[in-house]
Amino acid sequence: MTEAYVALEGGHVIEGRGRAPGTARGELVFTTAYTGYEESLTDPSYEEQVLTFSYPLIGNYGVREERFEDDRVHPRAVLAKELTEDVADWLATEDVPAIDHLDTRQVVTDIRDGGAMKCGIAVGEDVTEEDALAELEQCKAMSEHTDIGTQVSVDEPVVHGADNDGETVALVDCGAKGSIVDSLIARDAEVHVLPYDAAVEDVEDVDPDVLFISNGPGDPANYEQAIELVREFVEDTPVAGICLGQQIVAEALGGTTEKMNFGHRGVNQPVLDLESGQVVMTTQNHGYTVDEPGDHLEVTQINVNDDTPEGLDGIEYDVLTRQYHPEANPGPEDTLEFFDDVLEMADQRAKRAVPADD
Ligand SMILES: NC(=O)CC[C@H](N)C(=O)O
């Protein structure tokens, strides 16, 4: 019989039904997303995390590659109340341990009370509680994954939309979701995807209209090179960022970030635009947040639930960032116009740089 154990920080072990074998460890988090499991499971931002779905049935519309955000599953393991055969088989093929028939309400309550925590997972014919505890023992805190970018980034620059006539984007790939690239290409941008540790010269070679910092896993403070790029280019080049990108931009420009208790992960996080007064529903997946924006950035959007910064604008620089995922996938498409706004910012800047001949 397949055994399946989750060892929680503090040593409490819970038992479930094994659906995909293996051992794993990671930061235990939950998402309230009720659809979009293929997109969430292939989102590189979940690297080094163990993902619990709070929605009880996961997999009821199958598994289709065209909905993937990357070419592999990123969470180290998956927990749910009920996983369908399709999803369990997919995770087994990907060597990602999966457990269901757990009381996920209790797991979510534990995370809400204790914060995102370390955990150890063991699933297999003859694994024991001790195997899960041994994984927990070796589990690192998220901030200790100091070079996590190397696990999720391209190794070499890749160009998408080379025939496009629009803005040239240098996208620093800290674990970019495919939909971010797709959203830019769909707006006629030429997208140069650069490694997370790209040098200043690599960006200069692209000569971009906008420097765009992607989403990605882990602690923003560990992306020192991307922070440096923002500092280096922000005076002369518009800068944009999504999720980790917003945090990196804040770190670069005198702001601060902090770890949240259990973060925001779901597809119905309400965000208020402070200027228009409009509230939109957003997709989110983050465990860190901007604390202080610093003197060069202004908070333009906030989370309705806890007032954390959701959008930043540059005060004297051309900067536009979002903490949520405007590209959706999964989730509501209320915020896709962020990409239009970023490309418009780049276009306006280019026009200012080359005064019209009259
Ligand atoms: N989706 C993301 O980019 C996540 C950003 C960062 N790793 C966080 O957890 O806050």
From TrEMBL:
It comes from the Archaea. Its EC number is 6.3.5.5. It catalyses: L-glutamine + H2O = L-glutamate + NH4(+); hydrogencarbonate + L-glutamine + 2 ATP + H2O = carbamoyl phosphate + L-glutamate + 2 ADP + phosphate + 2 H(+). Pathway: Amino-acid biosynthesis; L-arginine biosynthesis; carbamoyl phosphate from bicarbonate: step 1/1; Pyrimidine metabolism; UMP biosynthesis via de novo pathway; (S)-dihydroorotate from bicarbonate: step 1/3. The active site is at 243 (nucleophile), 325, 327. The keyword ATP-binding applies. L-glutamine binds at residues 45, 216, 218, 244, 247, 285, 287-288. CDD domains: GATase1_CPSase. GO terms for molecular function: ATP binding; carbamoyl-phosphate synthase (glutamine-hydrolyzing) activity; glutaminase activity. InterPro entries: Anth_synth/Amidotransfase (IPR050472), CarbamoylP_synth_ssu (IPR006274), CarbamoylP_synth_ssu_N (IPR002474), CarbP_synth_ssu_N_sf (IPR036480), Class_I_gatase-like (IPR029062), CPSase_GATase1 (IPR035686), GATASE (IPR017926). Residues 1-167 are annotated as: CPSase. SUPFAM superfamilies: Carbamoyl phosphate synthetase, small subunit N-terminal domain (SSF52021), Class I glutamine amidotransferase-like (SSF52317). PROSITE patterns: GATASE_TYPE_1 (PS51273). GO terms for biological process: 'de novo' pyrimidine nucleobase biosynthetic process; 'de novo' UMP biosynthetic process; glutamine metabolic process; L-arginine biosynthetic process. Residues 2-122 form the Carbamoyl-phosphate synthase small subunit N-terminal domain. The keyword Transmembrane helix does not apply. Pfam families: CPSase_sm_chain, GATase. Small subunit of the glutamine-dependent carbamoyl phosphate synthetase (CPSase). CPSase catalyzes the formation of carbamoyl phosphate from the ammonia moiety of glutamine, carbonate, and phosphate donated by ATP, constituting the first step of 2 biosynthetic pathways, one leading to arginine and/or urea and the other to pyrimidine nucleotides. The small subunit (glutamine amidotransferase) binds and cleaves glutamine to supply the large subunit with the substrate ammonia. Composed of two chains; the small (or glutamine) chain promotes the hydrolysis of glutamine to ammonia, which is used by the large (or ammonia) chain to synthesize carbamoyl phosphate. Tetramer of heterodimers (alpha,beta)4. This is Carbamoyl phosphate synthase small chain. It comes from Halobiforma nitratireducens JCM 10879.
